[in-house]
């Protein structure tokens, strides 16, 4: 249905796509994922973000056949489905950016190290006034055939969309509409019963780094070596002290979405393990020397106000005391087993 949908929307119009195909998008059947979405999913902690990027990849490649470009306005992973809002434009020039914003993911099978490799890159034109030229990228030398942190092998996922998941201006406008509707008791959002949850979701999305693909999961990083979980504030503060960006993922408050290289992320784990010895001191991750200097786990002044807030239900003036991660309506809530008929 994507081919018909991207052709039916007028130039500059918006298209909403929802996929409840999470078992496939989660990598349970990689061959089916590739046949439906044009990419392979990986079983990793960032599976929900990868699902969003695979759906966007399918939309963009479908629209590109008709010289139409796709701009993600907002992308959400909610409960047991994903939903994206995209703008469709008539622009054959913008479709050339598909290869630059599409990439493969190299995921280590023994640790949480991952690398994103784009399938295209641009180089300046010889003519100063001419457009940039596209070319095939080179394989980064730092990846190699095995993981540089633990020596494990890589699995390859994708191709998938690796560009921004949302537009800041669009998300801000949506938040303003929600706040205005609450302030004047108008019928702007009449009939909408999930306004608090929508505002919480938009607030969480607005405070994540939209240009950083995929993320680490802090409890998973520590579980690999049976290390006591590092306080989220301390870990994010250490990254901020080193000058890197860090935030959460709107679906996962324990996510570490950062531009720090894998070596720095694991050096923080090694540094913490040095002060708090784990049960598994012989793990390959701990055998490597700490190369990062100036590691400081003390609380950073911006850790609670920057995009990467460390509080599960952090509240500030801009969010009007709205929790970002809403609890489930009831225990064990979610998709259940299919109904079975009982015959007496």
Structure, explained:
With 344 residues, this protein is of the alpha+beta class. 28% of the residues lie in helices and 19% in strands. The strands form 4 sheets. It has a 3-stranded antiparallel sheet with strand order 1-3-2, with helices on both faces. β10 and β11 (252-258) form a beta hairpin. α1 crosses α4. The longest helix has 18 residues, at 47-64. It is globular and about 60 Å long. The protein starts with a helix and ends in a 69-residue tail after the last helix. The model is unreliable at 307-320 (pLDDT under 50).
Q: Taking strands numbered 1, 2, ... along the chain, how are they ordered across the largest sheet?
A: 1-3-2
Order of helices and strands: HEHHHEEEEEEEHHEHHEEH
Beta-strand content estimate:
15-25%
What's the count of strands? 11
Largest beta-sheet characterization:
3 strands, antiparallel
Estimated helix fraction = 25-40%
Distance between the termini: 43 Å
Number of helices: 9
Mean pLDDT: 86
Rg, nearest Å: 22 Å
Structural class by SSE content: alpha+beta
Shape by Cα distribution: globular
Low-confidence residue ranges: 307-320
């Amino acid at each position: 249905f994507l081919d018909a949908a991207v052709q039916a929307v007028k130039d500059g119009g918006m298209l909403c796509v929802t996929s409840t195909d999470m078992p496939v998008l989660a990598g349970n059947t990689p061959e089916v994922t590739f046949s439906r979405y044009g990419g392979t999913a990986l079983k990793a902690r960032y599976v929900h973000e990868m699902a969003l990027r695979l759906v966007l990849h399918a939309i963009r490649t479908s629209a590109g056949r008709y010289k139409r470009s796709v701009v993600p306005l907002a992308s959400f992973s909610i409960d047991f489905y994903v939903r994206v809002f995209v703008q469709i434009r008539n622009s054959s020039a913008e479709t050339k950016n598909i290869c630059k914003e599409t990439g493969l993911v190299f995921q280590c099978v023994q640790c949480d190290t991952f690398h994103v490799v784009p399938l295209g890159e641009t180089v300046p034109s010889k003519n100063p006034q001419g457009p940039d030229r596209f070319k095939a990228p080179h394989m980064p030398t730092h990846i190699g055939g095995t993981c540089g942190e633990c020596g494990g092998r890589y699995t390859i996922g994708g191709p998938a969309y690796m560009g921004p998941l949302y537009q800041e201006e669009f998300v801000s406008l949506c938040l303003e509409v929600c706040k205005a509707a609450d302030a004047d008791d108008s019928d702007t959002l009449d009939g909408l019963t999930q306004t608090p949850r929508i505002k919480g979701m938009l607030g969480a999305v607005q405070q994540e780094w939209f240009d950083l693909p995929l993320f680490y999961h802090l409890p998973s990083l520590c579980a690999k070596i049976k290390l006591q979980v590092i306080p989220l504030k301390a870990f994010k503060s250490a990254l901020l002290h080193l000058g890197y960006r860090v935030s959460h993922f709107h679906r996962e408050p324990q996510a570490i979405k950062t531009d720090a290289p894998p070596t720095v992320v694991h050096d923080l784990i090694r540094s913490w393990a040095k002060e708090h010895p784990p049960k598994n001191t012989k793990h390959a991750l701990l055998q490597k020397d700490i190369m990062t200097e100036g590691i400081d786990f003390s609380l950073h002044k911006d850790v609670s106000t920057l995009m990467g807030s460390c509080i599960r239900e952090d509240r500030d003036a801009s969010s009007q005391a709205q929790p970002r991660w809403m609890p489930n309506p009831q225990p064990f809530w979610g998709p259940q087993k299919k109904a079975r008929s009982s015959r007496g």
